[in-house]
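Researcher: I'd like a structural prediction for the single chain below. Treat it as a standalone chain; there are no partners to consider.
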Amino acid sequence: MQKINVLIAGKGTSVPNVIASKYLNKLYVTSEDEIDGAILIKFNTFKELAQKCKALQIDIVLVEEEKWILQGIADVLKSNFVNCIAPTSKWTFLNLSKRDAKKICIKHDIKVPKDIKLPVDFPIMLKTDGFTQKTNSLDELIKIRQDINTTAPHLAENLYLEEFIDGDNLVVTSLFDGKHIITFNSGKIDSDRLHLYSKQLEMLLVNEKADFTGFFNSKLIKSGKDLYNIGFDFAYQLPVYEGDFLFLLISAVYQKLDEVKFLQN
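Model: Treating it as a single chain, here is the predicted structure.
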């Protein structure tokens, strides 16, 4: 396989793993932290970055900055025919809307906490976009709702109640290539349970015709034998992966993560 040029857009968390790859030709970064052997790229707009990527013959851009993902960096790079490892803006609703993310999980049989219409037993969870609060009594629930109505009425419109799940809060990272998914295990979930959850995620994205290549995180609660999804985010976390990291990214770009999964098993 020919060696390639890579740009890490963001903090540079993956720099050591990319440098260690036998497939690396040149490494470019946007972080101004001094990194041996890396070439700094500065830009003012995503379009300018795309033009520089094409001029420098950069083969893959790995985006590690969640803010840029939410601002649509993948859309701009893809429209300029630059390979980008990041979710597109169409899928930012997974991060930005708890209700919409929950609905799509239910549609594809991913376990989520149940909605509550009339609170009887406590504790329960009070949620809206960007806000989650455990409440232990009706008085506490009323007070929190009143505070939100006063300070952030735009959030109050989307408030809802959800059952409280007692269990371990975990985050797992997945990489999707447009057809296949790998969900990386940090060792806190048994492999069979994680495999089932990963397969459900893959079916969700494939059936909903997701066309991005990128990393994203599932926020989970492990309770007994069950995994409950309580949200998603795009905050970059370096996955626990023992193989050649750049080979993993190349496989994602060419939609061959199924072959990587086969090698892992």
